[in-house]
């Protein structure tokens, strides 16, 4: 599915130790503290829901939400993580898509509505929309990779 990635990792660390490490690098949501935490969210009962912390710059607005579970196994543990967009971000993207498609439909349906020459180039909107979508996907996958790299380093994870 778009804007979603499910991964499963193995670790030689016990589930309790993974939960402790996750709690150490995670602060409560909307704290905005400067204590060096890499994630914000909740960790407990071998489950977690995290967002990567960011500095409110324009390059850091799109961030994946990580929902996961930690399971104990004989030689360590298995961590299952679902990387996906937060609901508010999904709503904004859907609203922008509907707005652009609606505007393009009006341009096609009423070609003489406005005498501006740009009105005749309605076909540019789907091109801009497609290019924007591809760039958004590339940047989002980059952000997932950054989160994944942090977790692999801190939790000594190995992708399965």
Question: Quick recap of the structure?
Answer:
The chain has 160 residues and is α+β, with helices and mostly antiparallel strands. It contains three helices and seven strands.
Describe the structure.
41% of the residues lie in helices and 27% in strands. The protein has a seven-stranded mixed beta sheet with strand order 2-3-4-5-6-1-7, with helices on one face. The chain has three helices and seven strands. It has 160 residues and is α+β, with helices and mostly antiparallel strands. It has two domains: 4-85 and 144-159, TATA-Binding Protein (2-Layer Sandwich), CATH 3.30.310; 88-132.
Indicate the topology.
Elements: E1 4-11, H1 15-24, E2 26-27, E3 39-44, E4 47-52, E5 65-73, E6 76-84, H2 87-109, H3 124-155, E7 157-159
Parallel strand pairs: 2-3
Antiparallel strand pairs: 1-6, 1-7, 3-4, 4-5, 5-6
CATH topology tier name of the largest domain = TATA-Binding Protein
State the end-to-end distance: 20 Å
Strand content: 25-35%
Order of helices and strands: EHEEEEEHHE
Counting H and I runs of at least 4 residues, what is the number of helices? 3
Structural class: alpha+beta
């Amino acid at each position: 599915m778009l804007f979603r990635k499910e991964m499963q990792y193995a670790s030689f660390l016990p589930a309790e130790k993974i939960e402790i490490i996750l709690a150490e690098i995670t602060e409560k949501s909307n704290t905005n503290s400067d204590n060096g935490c890499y994630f914000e969210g909740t960790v407990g009962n071998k489950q977690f829901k995290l967002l990567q912390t960011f500095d409110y710059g324009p390059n850091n607005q799109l961030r994946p939400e990580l929902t996961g579970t930690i399971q104990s196994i004989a030689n360590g543990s298995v961590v299952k993580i679902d990387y996906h967009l937060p609901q508010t971000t999904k709503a904004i993207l859907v609203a922008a898509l509907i707005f652009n498609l609606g505007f393009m439909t009006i341009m096609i349906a009423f070609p003489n509505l406005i005498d501006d020459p740009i009105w005749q180039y309605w076909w540019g909107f789907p091109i801009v929309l497609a290019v924007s979508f591809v760039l958004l996907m590339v940047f989002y996958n980059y952000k997932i990779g950054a989160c994944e790299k942090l977790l692999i380093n801190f939790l000594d994870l190995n992708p399965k």
